[in-house]
Design brief:
CATH topology of chain B: MetI-like fold
Strand order of the largest sheet of chain A: 6-7-8-3-9-10
CATH topology of the largest domain in chain A: Rossmann fold
Shape of chain B: globular
Number of strands of chain A: 10
Order of helices and strands of chain A: EEEHEEEHHHEHEHEEH
Number of helices of chain A: 7
Strand content of chain A: 15-25%
Order of helices and strands of chain B: HHHHHHHHHHH
Helix content of chain B: over 70%
Helix content of chain A: 25-40%
Oligomer: heterodimer
Mean pLDDT of chain A: 90
Largest interface: A-B, 34 and 25 residues
CATH architecture of the largest domain in chain A: 3-Layer(aba) Sandwich
Shape of chain A: globular
Largest sheet of chain A: 6 strands, mixed
Low-confidence stretches of chain A: none
């Protein structure tokens, strides 16, 4: 699904974040990118979203070289990126409005796109119907994050990128949204890439975990986490061992 | 604001006017009923309408001109740190200058027609809108732009779905703040070399014809013009920027 081939990227010349970096993720895998702040996690996500271009190397998504944001990729950022002047329903419709605006041109919208503004099933699925007419300033952080998720999923993506999606939520809201994201991942057959700096979150959400250290990042360190979906995983020794292992690895990077 | 309270306040002001007129007992301050009668008569005979329309046209033309030039420039400056760094000092110096002092200069360069009057009011509105729209656009978080781009938006869609709705409140706030000044300056410009406009009408009746009730009818009409525009902007703001008042 994702192929990062020999990519070099720097914001300022001579200080690369990634140098000859290669990494691959398969279809319908759930990945977490874990690392300290400043390691380039969000940069990698922006590269995968097509919002940044590597100076060298190539990123392929679904076999196609990535040169601009791709309509089938959904991106959810830390502070949700909702329009403050639009209601929850209109925010969820935003992607559809943009697609309707351009039409099915294959660039801004998939070629097989049929214009629609129907978002009611998603509002219902994410429990947003009661607040559909509210503005983002009137709802809770959890509801804003649900709105951002709904807005992205309405577009039927095959790849979902999330940047620190649960960082500013309280614990119960965070746990329920983490479950929701995993449910949606299984339901929709998505490929999922979540960026976080929280080790516990990485272990709970990542089928595979990509570790990034202080830049420049040259090799992809991947940790497998096959049991992440087991019930009661949170309380198991395996979970605690992996957290400890990841902490040791991060400190060594 | 509540309509009933507004009505009561209006009636209160009329009563105050009536009271002062009764105390003064001079032709230079006729009571509201007398002025009202003259106003009605002037409207019916069409004498006031011509002046009202001339003033309305000047203020509306300069407002539209200001919106359609200042808002795009404000958006561009707000989005480009480099351009703004270049122009900000110039705007900073020009912004507080009372534009009304340019009336004679503009008259000299643009002549005594409508254009010079429109340009003077335009100058005032232009800087108000420019600064407010620029600051609003600069305040748009880059994350917001990124996330909308990730939904497939190119330049055109960004403009339509982000920049336009984001700058609307700034334009309306700028208008609400500067309508009073705009109408005041309209009056000043209409004292010069024109025979149409409420400013001219007020000046003619007050200083040349010494027809005080007619002069006050002009004052009421000009206040009505300012008030009407203010209500219009206020209404548009309530309708289009509901999110700002409910949050």
């Amino acid at each position: 699904m994702i192929k990062v081939e020999d990519v070099t990227f720097a914001y300022t010349p001579g200080k690369p974040i990634f140098e000859h970096f290669t990494w691959a993720a398969g279809h319908n895998e759930a990945w977490v990118i874990l690392g300290p702040s400043g390691c380039g996690k969000s940069t990698l996500l922006s590269l995968l979203a097509g919002l940044l271009r590597p100076q060298r190397g190539l990123i392929r998504i679904d076999g196609q070289p990535l040169t601009r944001p791709r309509p089938q990729t959904g991106l959810i950022i830390q502070d949700y990126g909702l329009l403050p002047w639009a209601t929850v329903r209109e925010n969820v419709r935003l992607g559809l409005r943009i697609r309707n605006f351009y039409g099915a041109d294959g660039v801004h919208a998939p070629r097989d796109y049929h214009p629609t503004l129907d978002v009611e099933p998603w509002l219902e699925r994410l429990g947003l119907l009661p607040v559909a007419e509210c503005y983002p300033g009137q709802i809770s952080g959890g509801q804003r994050q649900r709105t951002a998720i709904a807005r992205t999923l309405v577009l039927n993506p095959d790849l979902l990128l999330m940047d620190e999606p649960f960082a500013s939520l309280d614990a119960p809201t965070r746990e329920s949204l983490q479950r929701l994201v995993l449910d949606l991942w299984m339901e929709r057959g998505l490929t999922l890439v979540i960026v976080t700096h929280v080790i516990e979150e990485a272990v709970l959400l990542g089928q595979k975990i990509l570790l990034l250290g202080h830049p420049p990042n040259r090799t992809a360190q991947v940790v497998e986490n096959p049991d992440f979906l087991c019930p009661e995983y949170r309380d198991s020794p395996a979970y605690r061992d992996l957290c400890r292992d990841l902490r040791a690895r991060l400190e060594a990077l | 604001m509540n309509r009933r309270n507004l009505l009561l306040a209006g009636l209160g002001l009329l009563a105050f006017w009536q009271g002062v007129a009764l105390m003064v007992q001079q032709p230079i301050l006729p009571p509201p009923l007398e002025v009202g009668a003259v106003l009605w008569q002037e409207i019916r005979s069409g004498a006031l309408g011509v002046h009202f329309l001339a003033s309305l046209w000047r203020v509306v033309a300069s407002t539209l001109l200001a919106i359609f030039t200042a808002a795009p420039i404000g958006l561009i400056l707000g989005q480009s740190k480099r351009l703004n760094a270049f122009f900000a000092p110039v705007i900073y110096l020009l912004y507080p200058i009372p534009k009304v002092v340019f009336v004679p200069v503009v008259l000299l360069f643009l002549g005594i027609g409508d254009l010079s009057k429109i340009v003077v009011i335009y100058l005032i509105l232009f800087f108000q809108i420019l600064v407010l729209v620029r600051d609003q656009a600069a305040g748009l978080r880059p994350e917001l732009i990124l996330s909308v781009r990730s939904l497939g938006a190119g330049r055109l869609a960004l403009f339509r779905f982000v920049y336009l709705p984001a700058s609307l409140p700034a334009v309306l706030t700028a208008l609400r703040q500067s309508i009073g000044t705009a109408v005041a300056v309209l009056y000043v410009t209409e004292l010069f070399a024109t025979q149409k406009g409420l400013g001219y009408y007020i000046y003619l009746n007050g200083s040349a014809l010494l027809n005080y009730p007619a002069m006050y009818a002009g004052v009421v009409a000009m206040s009505g013009l300012g008030l009407g525009l203010y209500f219009l902007v206020d209404g548009l703001e309530k309708r289009w920027c509901r999110w700002q008042t409910v949050v």
